[in-house]
Write a structure and sequence with these properties.
- There is one protein chain.
- The chain is an alpha/beta fold.
- Helices cover about 45% and strands about 20% of the residues.
- It has 17 helices and 15 strands.
- The strands form four sheets. It has a six-stranded mixed beta sheet with strand order 4-5-15-10-11-14. Strands 8-7-6-9 form a four-stranded parallel beta sheet.
- α4 packs antiparallel against α6.
- The chain starts with a strand and ends with a strand.
- About 50% of the residues are buried.
């Protein structure tokens, strides 16, 4: 399988090369040239598999230049050996027959990013071997809190790598800041940025696209890559747990294979919910994607109006990982909904950079609204829902099997 840029850079890359680069030379994000199809028979076969077996089955569809033995090593190293405090990295817990939560906080840093960031360093090591890379890979990460610690933990002392995490100085929780600042490892570095997450992420992207800096890195025997979800290697492991959740839902007897579920995802940078969209595109029965935002409800407004406008007030909330006004992974969805017209996607991104706003055409807007529903909750509603869900009294009125809900529990 080959990977191409959302903004039209013509050179196609292997999965290993796309992961190593992190971002395309034109600033676009790498996406698979084609999306592999998964049959219902294959989905049914997942019911009897362990999480590790499910991961190897699905990752092999995208990482076609990795051998079976290499994937085995990567998966077992990430999800075995006591890395997670549960038999499965992503257990499914039911609030009632029609509502389940996918617990993604069982990793070493208690962040959902662990599911991807425990395997990414192992994939990256194999990537270096596959591409004949002898330069040191310098991982740049922008974080609003949880990605930073998870990436630092995953890449700590990994041979041939350095990792630099940038975080907004006042935009992460006190616990997250201490997690990052106390991370051990000879190759880890943490930098505070005077600004919010969007400033931090934009700065990291500018480093990637600076040809002068890239030339200096080459002369120094180093090369940049990313551990944010702009890197396909970070995003693809997240596709696995949607298939795994569906398999466990069916295994419980509360859902019949072939019946669709709705997916509710707290969303900031759009990577997690985009992984669910890729899963559906592959064949997983998902009816609707419910994009849940906090006071920074730019995605809610975008889904309803078709206009993405970051020229608005930025709010610091109790859910800092969602405090984002530039949702980078949305670019991948726009590329797909524009039927692979890279010039259209590039135009949206150019308008966002120059004016802070863009409006999609009616065709893209229609596809967006058919697939996604956007909603948001302020901080009082968020904390109240957490309390009531903790008492196993879900607030959603949708309770039937045919409208099965999967909530993502991220931390």
């Amino acid at each position: 399988m080959k990977y191409i840029s959302t903004r039209g850079h013509q050179e196609k890359q292997s999965s290993a090369e796309a992961m190593k680069r992190g971002i395309a030379p034109d600033g676009g994000l790498y996406v698979p040239e084609t999306i592999p199809a998964v049959s219902m028979e294959t989905i049914k076969s997942l019911l009897t598999m362990t999480y590790q077996e499910r991961a190897k089955c699905l990752l092999s569809l995208f990482l076609t230049d990795f051998t079976k033995a290499a994937l085995d090593t990567c998966v077992q190293g990430a999800y075995g050996e006591g890395k997670f405090d549960s038999d499965t990295p992503a257990p499914l817990v039911f609030l009632n027959d029609g509502c389940a939560v996918l617990e993604l906080w069982h990793g070493p840093t208690s962040a959902f990013k662990d599911v991807a960031l425990q395997i990414l360093p192992r994939l990256m090591t194999e990537t270096m071997r596959l591409t004949g890379e002898d330069r040191e890979i310098v991982i740049l990460v922008a974080t609003s809190g949880d990605t930073g610690k998870a990436a630092l933990d995953g890449f700590a002392d990994v041979p041939g790598t350095k990792i630099i995490v940038f975080y907004p100085s006042d935009g992460v929780s006190a616990v997250q800041k201490q997690q990052m600042l106390t991370q051990t490892g000879a190759n880890v570095h943490v930098v505070a940025v005077d600004g919010n997450f969007d400033d931090t992420q934009s700065g990291v992207k500018l480093i990637f696209s600076d040809a002068g800096i890239a030339a200096k890195m080459t002369r120094a025997g180093k090369v940049f890559s990313s551990a944010n979800s702009i890197n396909w290697g970070r995003l693809v492991p997240q596709i696995v747990y949607y298939f795994s959740a569906y398999a466990d839902y069916c295994k419980s007897g509360r859902l019949t294979p072939g019946e669709a579920m709705n997916v509710v995802v707290p969303t900031g940078n759009f990577g997690n919910i985009l992984a669910a969209w890729y899963a559906k595109t592959m064949g997983l029965p998902i009816a609707k994607f419910i994009c849940a935002s906090n006071d920074n409800n730019i995605l809610t407004d975008f889904i309803h109006s078709g206009t993405y406008n970051k020229n608005r007030t930025f709010y610091k909330t109790v859910s800092p990982s969602m405090d984002i006004l530039i949702s980078s992974n949305l670019e991948r969805l726009l590329y797909a909904f524009a039927d692979g017209k890279a010039t259209e996607t590039a135009g949206y991104m150019k308008s966002l950079m120059q004016n802070g706003v863009y409006t999609v055409n009616e065709n893209v807007k229609k596809k967006l609204q058919e697939a996604f529903y956007g909603g948001w909750a302020d901080q009082d509603a968020t904390t109240d829902t957490i309390k009531r869900s903790g008492r196993r009294t879900p607030t959603s009125p949708i309770r039937t099997r045919r409208s099965a809900l999967l909530f993502m529990i991220l931390m």
